[in-house]
TrEMBL record:
Topology class, membrane: Multi-pass membrane protein
Gene Ontology CC annotations of this record: membrane
Native species: Pantoea coffeiphila
One Gene Ontology MF term: transmembrane transporter activity
Transmembrane region(s): 22-40, 52-75, 82-100, 106-124, 145-163, 169-186, 207-228, 248-268, 275-294, 300-320, 332-355, 361-382
Official protein name in the record: MFS transporter
Length: 384
C-alpha cells in the first residue's frame, strides 16, 4: 500500500470513528428526550401511577421484539440502512408521544418507540465493534460515553425548553431538528457493508459463550437498573432524604458513568481489559455494599458514585468480547447479548422488588453486589 493509500485509509477510519460517536450521541439524545415528556403523557392519559407503570412496559416490549432480529437485518442490509430506519422512526414517534392522549395510542407509540431504539442500539454496537476491530485500539468505552453524554444532553435540553414555556410538541420539534442535523453530519460515514447471510433465520437463540456473555450483561444492566429504579426510593425510605432531593442518587451515578466511559479507552489502554473489568466490577459491588452498610446519606451517594465509575466500562468490554468470539457471527452475537442484557433493565427492577418485599431493599442491593462478584471472577476468562 502506498503512502497516499495509507493516508486515505487512515482518514476513512477516522471518519468512521467520528460517525460512530455521533450515532451513539443520537441514540442517547433520542432515548432521553422521552423522560421529560413522561409527566405530560401521564396527565393527558389521566392514568393512575400503577396503570401508567403498566403502560411504560410497552417501551421495553418494543425493544425486546426488535433487538433479536436486528442482528439479522444488519447482516442482510448493513448498519447504515438499519440506523437510518431507526432514526426516521424516532423522528416520527417523538412528536406522537408528545401528542397522543389515549392509553391505547400511547401504548402503540411507546412500543414502536422502543423498537426504534432497539434497532439503533444493536446496529450502532455492531458498527462500533467493527470500527474498533479495524482500528486495533480500545474504543468501545468512548463510544458508549457519547451515548451517556447524549442522555444528559437530551434530558437537559428538553427540560430547559419546557421550562422556558414551550409546549411538549414544540420542544420535541427542536430536539428533532438537532437529531436531523447530527444524522446529516455523520450519515456518509456509517458502515454500509452487508454480511451476506441470506439463509440466516430472523431469530437466532444465543448459545455457548454468547449466552454466558449475555448473562453477565444481564447482571451489569441489573446493577444500573437498581440505581435507576430503586436508588431514589432507597434514599427516601432508608436514608431520610427529602423526596425533592432523591434524584441526586441517579444524577451522581449518571455523571460518574459518563466521565468513566469518556476516559475508559485510556483506562483500558493503560490497565488492560482484564484489570478494567475485574476492578470495575469490584468497585461497583463495593459501592452498593457501602451504600447499604453505612447509615448516612452522603456515604450512600458516594456508594452510587462508585457504582457509576465501576460499571462504566464493564458493558463496553462485553461488547468487545462479543465482537471477538467465534461461536456466532458478530452481528447475531451482539443482537442476542444486547437482548439478554436489556432484559436486566426491564426484569431486574421487578426482581429487586420481590427480594425487597421478602426481606429489605438493603438485602436486594447486597444480592446485586454478590452477582457483580461473579462478573469480576469471570474477567480473565472473558478477555482472554
Amino acid at each position: 500500500m502506498t503512502t497516499l493509500e495509507t493516508q486515505i485509509s487512515a482518514n476513512v477510519a477516522r471518519l468512521n470513528q467520528r460517525a460512530t460517536r455521533v450515532v451513539f450521541l443520537i441514540a442517547g439524545i433520542g432515548m432521553a428526550a422521552w423522560a421529560p415528556l413522561v409527566p405530560y403523557a401521564k396527565d393527558r392519559a389521566a392514568l393512575s401511577d400503577a396503570s401508567f407503570g403498566t403502560l411504560l412496559l410497552f417501551l421495553g416490549l418494543g425493544s425486546l421484539i426488535a433487538m433479536p432480529v436486528t442482528g439479522v437485518l444488519v447482516g442482510r442490509y448493513g448498519c447504515k440502512r438499519i440506523i437510518t430506519c431507526g432514526s426516521a422512526f424516532l423522528l416520527v414517534l417523538l412528536p406522537l408521544l408528545a401528542l397522543f392522549s389515549s392509553p391505547f395510542s400511547l401504548a402503540l407509540a411507546l412500543m414502536a418507540f422502543g423498537a426504534s431504539i432497539g434497532l439503533i442500539d444493536v446496529a450502532m454496537n455492531i458498527q462500533a465493534v467493527e470500527v474498533e476491530k479495524s482500528s486495533g485500539k480500545a474504543m468501545m468505552s468512548g463510544f458508549h460515553g457519547f451515548f451517556s453524554m447524549g442522555g444528559i444532553v437530551g434530558a437537559g435540553l428538553m427540560s430547559l425548553i419546557l421550562a422556558l414555556g414551550m409546549t411538549p410538541v414544540h420542544a420535541v420539534l427542536v430536539i428533532n431538528l438537532l437529531l436531523i442535523a447530527l444524522y446529516l453530519y455523520c450519515q456518509r460515514h456509517i458502515l454500509n457493508e452487508r454480511l451476506h447471510q441470506p439463509d440466516t433465520p430472523m431469530f437466532v437463540l444465543p448459545r455457548g459463550w454468547v449466552l454466558f456473555l449475555g448473562v453477565l450483561c444481564f447482571i451489569l444492566f441489573l446493577a444500573e437498573g437498581a440505581i435507576l429504579d430503586w436508588g431514589a426510593l432507597f434514599l427516601t425510605h432508608s436514608r431520610d432524604v427529602p423526596a425533592a432531593q432523591a434524584g441526586m442518587g441517579y444524577a451522581v451515578f449518571s455523571v460518574a458513568m459518563t466521565i468513566g466511559r469518556l476516559c475508559g479507552d485510556w483506562v483500558v489502554l493503560k490497565a488492560g481489559r482484564t484489570a478494567t473489568l475485574f476492578f470495575g466490577s469490584l468497585c461497583a459491588a463495593a459501592g452498593l455494599v457501602l451504600a447499604v452498610t453505612i447509615n448516612d446519606s452522603t456515604m450512600t451517594l458516594v456508594g452510587f458514585l462508585l457504582v457509576g465509575f465501576g460499571a462504566s466500562n464493564t458493558v463496553p468490554i462485553m461488547f468487545s468480547a462479543a465482537g471477538n468470539q467465534k461461536t456466532m457471527p458478530v452481528n447475531l452475537a451482539i443482537s442476542a447479548m444486547t437482548t439478554i442484557g436489556y432484559a436486566g433493565i426491564l426484569a431486574g427492577p421487578a426482581l429487586i422488588g420481590f427480594i425487597a418485599q421478602w426481606s429489605s431493599l438493603s438485602i436486594a442491593f447486597s444480592a446485586v453486589a454478590a452477582l457483580l462478584l461473579v462478573v469480576a471472577a469471570s474477567a480473565r476468562l472473558i478477555t482472554r
